[in-house]
Amino acid sequence: MAGRRVGKALSEMVRTVREGPVTVRYPFEPASVSERFRGKLDIDPAKCTGCGVCRNSCPAGVIEMVTIGKRKIGDREIENRRPVFDLYTCISCGQCVDDCRFGALELTGGFELAVFDKKSLVMKKALKVVE
User: Fold this and answer.
1) pLDDT digits over 110-119, tens only?
2) Which fold has domain 33-127?
């Protein structure tokens, strides 16, 4: 009985040696992600209106609206706000992307979010006002 198990294990080892490795040699070779992968959040500042819907829909509370000035609309003066994202606590659920009616947000294929300093994962890209 033990001989049959050894023979089966040996044949399995030979088969896997012939087929080669299944894993990717990351980081020495680029890793590919599937089309539906939800990675690092990104924003297009030109499309962002500062409406705050993304902040209201975020279940993890990673979006903070920051006032960057004021703008005139007719005879009223309103605050010009933009989102700041804390990617360290983002769960990549995509709720903000789905709720942004202006298409300013997207989840990219980026997955390398391991850093030494958490503050480097605070994305202030939207604060650059594009006129």
Assistant:
1) 888 888 998 9
2) Alpha-Beta Plaits (3.30.70)
